[in-house]
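hey m, so remember when u said the C-alpha cells were messed up on ur end? i reran from scratch. heres the input so u can diff it against urs
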Amino acid sequence: MLIGFVIAYLLISIALGIYAATQVHNARDYITTNRRMPLFIVTSMVFATWFGAETVLGIPATFLDEGLSGLISDPLGASLCLILFGLFFARKLYRLNLMTIVDFYRQRFDRRVELITGVAITLSYLGWVSAQITALGLVFNILSDGSISQTEGIIIGATIVLIYTLFGGMWAVALTTSFQMVMIVTGLFYIAWLIADQVGGLAPVIEHAAEQQKFNFWPEMNGIAIIAFISALLTMGFGSIPQQDVFQRANASKSATIAVWGTVLGGIAYLLFAAVPIYLAYSAHLMDAEMVAHWLNEDAQKILPTLVMDHLPLFAQVIFFGALLSVIMSTASSTLLAPSVTLSENVLKGWLIHNATDDQHFLKITRSIVASFALLVTIYALWALDSDMGIHQMVENAYKVTLVVAFVPLVAGLYWSRASTMGAYCAICFGLITWIPLELIAPEGEGVIPPQFAGFLMAIIGMSLGSWLKPHATPTRENSVPLKI
C-alpha cells in the first residue's frame, strides 16, 4: 500500500506538470508565468523551494552530529538570505522587468560580466539540485527495502522530476509547490503530533538535547572560530542572494509588494518550520537509542525515515513519505529550472545560439537545456554518492562560487552609483584568484580564514579599487547601459 501511494503521488505530480504545460504559450510564460502569481502562491513557492531534502534529512542529521552550531549556514543563513532579498533586492529588481537575474549584470555592466556570473550561478546549482536527486534515491531505497538501490533511485527520481519540469516550466513549479506545501505542513505536523505522544511531548526531547550540549550555538571566543562562524553564515546568507530561483519567485509576482512580502514570509516560515524535522529526528534518541547509534555510524540521514518505518503505523508512513516526496520534488523541480534558464538566456543565447530570436525556437532550446542539465545533475549526484558527500554538505558547498563571483557586483550595481564595469571585472578577478588557490590548498576552512570568505573580502576590495580607477560605466557594447534604479 505504501509503495502504491508513492506511485499515485508521483503520477499526480506528473499530471499537474502536464496540465501546467497547457498554460505555457511562450518563453516568458515558461520562465516567469508572465507575472500572474498572488501572495499565497509566491510564499508557497519560496517556502517549498527552500524546504528541501537537506531540511528534512540533512539538517537533522547535522544537528544530531554537531548540534546547533552545525546549522549556522542552513537554516539560519538560508532564512537570512530570503529575508534580505525580500527587503533589499526584490523591489528594485522587480521594477527592472528582467527575464533572469543575470540580465541585470549585462544591463548594469556588460556582456562579459553577464557571461561570467551566468556560468558561476549555473554551476552553483549542481550541488543543490544533486542533493535533492540524491535524497529521492535514498527514499526509493528505503521504501523498497533495498530492492531499488540508491543509484537506481537517483536515476528514477531525476527522470520523474525532469518530466513535469520540462513541459510545464514555472507554471509546473507554481502548481505543484502549492499542492506540495500543503502536504509538507500538514504531513510533518501530523507526524510530530504522533511522535510527541510517544515521547511525552516537547519538553523531554529538549531536556535530552540540552544535556547532550546540542544547543551550543556561539563559537569559541578566538579569531579563527569567529571568522569561521561568520563565513558559514554569509556563505549561504549572502551567496544565495544572487540566485535565479529566488529572483524567479519574486519576479513571478503580480506586484512589487507581493515580490517583497512573498519572499520575506517564505523565509520566516522556512526558519520556523525547519525546527520540526529536527525535533522528529532527535526524538529517536528517546524512542530507539540503539537504532540512532547504528545510523550515526553509518548514515545519519536515514534516522528519521527508519524511525517512521519502524515505530509509526502505515497511515503515518504514507503521510510522512508523501510529505518527504513533496519536500524533495518541489525543490528539485525549482532548482532544475532556474540554472537551465540562466544557461540558455545568459550564457548560450547570442553566443553559441545565434538564431534564437524566435520565441518558440528559444522555448525549445530552453527545454532541451533543462533535459541536458538534468543529465549533468544525475551524473554529479552519482559521483557525490560514491564520495560519501552528505546532502547538507552538498547544499552548503553550492553557494561558495556565487558569494565570491556574483554577490558584490549585484549589491554594488544596485546601491552604489560609482560602481563601474571595471569594478565588476576587478571584483570577479580578485575573488577568483584568491578563492580557488585557497580552496585547493586548505579546503573546508583548514586555514586561518575559509577560502570563500577570503575571496568575498577580496571581491569587495576589487570592486572598490576598480570603480575608483574608472568610476563611470562607459558602455561599449549593445545593451550595456547604466541603470536608473
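this time it looks ok to me. Confidence is low (pLDDT under 50) at residues 473-482. if urs says something different then somethings off w ur setup not the seq
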